Amino acid sequence: MKTPLLADVYAVEAFQTHGHQMVDLLAKHLKAAQKATRKTIPYTDPEIEKKFWEQYPEKQDFQTLAQDLIDRSIHVHQPKYIGHQVAPPAPITAVSSMLTSFLNNGSAVYEMGIANTAIERIITDQLCAQLGFDSNARGFLTSGGTLANLTALLAARSVKDRSGVWKNGHEESLGILVCEEAHYCVDRAARIMGLGDKGILKVPATTNYAMDTAALEETLEKAKQEGIQVFAIVGSAPSTATGTIDPLDKIASFAQKHGLWFHVDAAHGGAAIYSTTFKKDLAGIEKADSVAIDGHKMMMMPALTTALLFKDGSHSYQTFSQKADYLLSDADHEDWYNMAKRTFECTKSMMSIHWFVLLNQYGTSVFDEFVTKLYQMGRQFAEIIKKDANFELALEPQTNIVCFRMVQKQLSEKELNTLNERLRFALVQEGSFYIVQTKLRGTHYLRVTIMNPKTDPEILSALLAHLKELAKPILQNLK
Ligand SMILES: *Cc1c(COP(=O)(O)O)cnc(C)c1O
What we know:
- It is a single chain.
- The chain is an alpha/beta fold.
- The protein is 43% helix and 13% strand.
- The chain folds into 2 domains: 10-90 and 364-479, Aspartate Aminotransferase, domain 1, CATH 3.90.1150; 105-362, Type I PLP-dependent aspartate aminotransferase-like (Major domain) (Aspartate Aminotransferase, domain 2, 3-Layer(aba) Sandwich), CATH 3.40.640.
- The strands form 2 sheets. The chain has a 7-stranded mixed β-sheet, with helices on both faces.
- Strand 2 (173-179), helix 9 and strand 3 (200-203) form a beta-alpha-beta unit.
- The mean pLDDT is 94.
- Pyridoxal-5'-phosphate binds at residues 85, 144-146, 183, 185, 236, 239-240, 265, 267-268, 294, 306.
């Protein structure tokens, strides 16, 4: 059989042309994005967007195809992108992504990913040391905070439940403690594990949306009376909606007292272990049994890459196996290099390369600068909001997540909710800035996450001014 198409697909010259075209286009895009001269989000109705791509010309010129993709996507490199917690990837990691996609090495078994497996060990050892763990700690990289949290809880259950849950399943009622403000993926992980409603023991939050550790004893006692064996407690650093960091040190003491596994969901803010200014807010994280940190949020990497780190490395081998119960310190051979024994994934992308490239080219200071700058900008935005009588903060921000709303004296709480909801949607449709929203105890708030170091006080002030303009017609209609 003649295979002209396949010859085209693998032609070297075409690859070179496409590659150069793409880098030029993206460089142009980056320049425009940084100047913030274009829209941040080109919002279209989902049905219209679907039609556009259904009717897309076949064999479109590649450069045009790439440009259309850029033009019809949200732009995280725009300083006016202050919405969800997605990093504007450091451009060098986009370039290394091309390398990793091209090489397509895996990491299930060592032979299929020689360099990236060794590098994964080095990166996770570095993270463990930065956390304050000792040399018994081990970690690995996995596809997202959601999967990392599930994997951590599976390990916790395997270690804490002595009935051999991996082999025998479990009949007793098991449960975990978690703050009502935690990311929904913790709840989902518990349900996937079969814990059900009754196994997810929600600890109430304080007025500042942190776990209320004063309520822990009572919550645990109540669970015990209902016959639930609690095996783990999860702290958030920070929680997603408000960016509040749970009191990790207090949770650690509670966990130790009751023999519970302590997992820290630091998907968003774990990178602050590198921040000379804000590391102190994570005090107690070094006492955790496991910690999840997303590279694609506060560490400038493309999605997805998450580190899951275990204080006692041998626990990481127990997640998907009953055995592997050797102690690392006296293990004859610890086959850390066959990653699939410990990860949920079989095939996994060469995600360690993003971490290595950043560290190798810029050093750990790059994470300090990034996190510190963005957390400080969160505080600066709070000060700007406080000076404007048209707006109020939901709470003092602890990180780069800020929740606030527009207020007007003459409006009821219900009308204020409607105002802020309509305001957010008007902004999305208009597209210059991108922000999100959240409901806190029944109140509708606007929410920003400052993810881009180029977002400055001037842009944040411009956001408030713009919101006031957009509010005018909405206020007319509310009256
Ligand atoms: C983003 C986030 C998650 C989910 O992580 P993914 O990488 O999106 O799967 C979990 N927990 C917290 C606190 C988060 O901020």
